[in-house]
Specification:
homodimer; 7-stranded mixed beta sheet; Aspartate Aminotransferase, domain 1; alpha/beta; Aspartate Aminotransferase, domain 2; 12 strands
Chain lengths: ~375, ~375
């Protein structure tokens, strides 16, 4: 129940066992074409989508390396670990203008606007900050970015397909996701959508050879469709199968199911007197793909998560400065109501053992109510 | 029968279907540790080996981005398509000094020495030029590179584990291979060995964020062992299983079997009056992992390879300027004597149909003799 890599459905795992095919063949091209088409629906975009072999980070890297020159400014917004990664990448290739907020607190839109007014080619932001369970105001910052004629780059890795994420409506020029999140594919692929507006402003030559969006777009437009370098073929088999599953469920249905499941976790937390970690406001709601909660006083991280693990349920801890302070439950991909209830039940069990359970069964009851089971 | 991605053994395909695990867990760390240890034997090195998620190109990229600064020189040697890639990467990050030879002709060592005398931080070369079926003189250039106190970077992607490749004995500072070649894993992982001598000369900060060897070494030294960004977990399962298989066969036995199989293909070509493409000399022998042959006069590429494909045997054509001029048969990984004989038999069948078979059965007979079957 960690916020990715998530559980993978058996039919997706089985798809990986197909015999290898050449990545320059028409057969591979047809698989890639179908994935690109379905990913457009998944991203809610008319933009082209390419698939890169690598973690989601390779997509974040490609966006900035391809767009931001040594002397160009990029505003990098952060309120958690992954936002900070954008600052690191921005510093690697151009002039990063970091706007940092305390981890888990909402972004102040005025500060972003002020930074944009000093002139920047691009703005980079994480939509769903996995490290703190908060979603950031992509729509509002998208509007602002357009007004200032900058390019908007959004890390949607743990967001797209789980939270609401409207690539085109919100004016997101480059959106990135990873295979191991809402799509429930094993990790190893990054999916990147690219607006023609941003493509027109790409650097003549990307600062990175491997993470080169231009090269990926060029190869994707060849016949047969291909990738510039050898792709992770079995993960493309898995991606195709997972997209079929998501299409069968309905992309919209998957999003509302995910929202309901996160709602169930939050209701259980409330019933068990466990405080949610992030601070929210009207533009920055709780994440629907990962719920971050404070570890109740008097229990150690080790006893809480270690106790749950002994019962077969793995949840995540806090990262870096939040280590030992919070724990996180993911609700992404092909997670079921049963998975949620078992997780809450196990949490109750551990709390009871530690003498910290206020009202036995209240968490499971609250979650069941939301899930309608 | 293409020179990668190669056929994958069923037990390796099955290994990929295991349920996902967290890439920060002790369980993943133990798998990565075992792979790193076995890869040392595979590379014949005492150097550390890291595994990156991406094609072999990400390893080539990481080596140069991490070592060669904007104003630093790198000698890039090429006599085929993949050598030219090193020049492209060298130009992306530093000052490339390309030394190019006609595709498929041996490297002139004097020209390399002359380039080194003008001062260069590194030399990059492809050991086994897959596009032309020729191996390059790594031992000789390794000696030369040491003499001039430069770093020696070798693309061993289609070589290591198939051809003789002595990382330490030949003084190779950074050696790179890909999962989809002699190891017979599906594509998607690059394995890179790094000498402490080269690590000491890494740039303060790699020019690439994703393809960052320093970050990979740092994470590989953590407890549990990990990767800086989310790795393609199922490909690590496959890598572990494939390394077990290679160890069971014996790394040395796999190399001699591969050599014998390439010998069988060459003997068949000779018996069928098909000319081998590359020019060889005492330092540059034919490749044992890919045999490149001229397409016999009077037959088109399409009829030759298309005809074989109809019979279920896929071989590769020429790339770029060699398109339509040569065809290539790979002998890597878990290829069997039966695979070789079936390929030669199919080649004979197509040649016979086109009225171009000088002596029916001679190819299969010559190959069988070499294979001892």
């Amino acid at each position: 129940m960690i916020p990715g890599p998530v559980k993978v459905a058996p039919r997706v795992l089985r798809a990986m066992s197909k015999p290898m095919i050449s990545h320059r063949s028409a057969e591979f091209g047809a698989i890639y074409d179908e994935c690109r088409d379905l990913l457009k629906e998944f991203f809610e975009t008319e933009n082209e989508v390419v698939v890169m072999t690598g973690s989601g980070t390779v997509g974040m890297d490609a966006a900035i390396a391809g767009l931001v020159g040594r002397e160009e400014k990029i505003v990098t917004i952060s309120n958690g670990k992954f936002g900070e990664r954008f600052t690191e990448i921005g510093e690697r290739y151009g002039k990063a203008m970091p706007i940092a907020f305390d981890w888990g607190t909402p972004i102040n839109l005025d500060r972003v606007e002020a930074a944009l007014e000093t002139g920047a080619k691009a703005v980079a932001m994480v939509h769903n900050e996995t490290s703190v369970g908060l979603t950031n105001p992509a729509k509002e910052i998208g509007n602002m970015t357009r007004k200032h004629d900058a390019i908007f780059i959004v890390d949607g890795i743990s967001s797209i397909g789980g939270n609401q994420f409207k690539t085109d409506e919100w004016g997101i020029d480059i959106a990135i996701t990873g295979s191991q999140k809402a799509l429930a594919v094993p990790p190893g692929l990054a999916m990147v959508s690219v607006s023609s507006r941003s493509e027109a402003r790409f650097l003549e030559r990307s600062a990175s050879y491997y993470a080169d969006l231009k090269a990926h777009l060029k190869s994707a437009r060849k016949q047969p469709t291909q990738t510039p370098y050898t792709p992770a073929v079995p993960l493309f088999f898995a991606l195709q199968e997972a997209l079929h599953m998501a299409k069968e469920e309905g992309f919209e249905s998957r999003r509302s199911r995910t929202a309901m499941q996160a709602g169930a976790v939050r209701a259980a937390a409330d019933a068990l007197d466990i405080k949610l970690f992030p601070q929210i406001n009207e533009f920055s709601p709780y994440s629907n793909t990962v719920t971050a909660m404070k570890i109740p006083e008097g229990i150690s991280d080790d006893r809480l998560r270690g106790g749950m693990k002994k019962q077969g349920v793995v949840v995540s801890g806090g990262q870096e400065k939040l280590k030992g302070k919070i724990f996180r439950i993911g609700t992404m991909g092909v997670c079921s109501s049963g998975d949620i209830l078992r997780t809450i039940q196990t949490l109750e069990l551990v709390l009871a053992k530690e003498g910290k359970l206020p009202n036995r069964g209240a968490g499971v009851e609250a979650a069941s109510k939301v899930l309608g089971v």
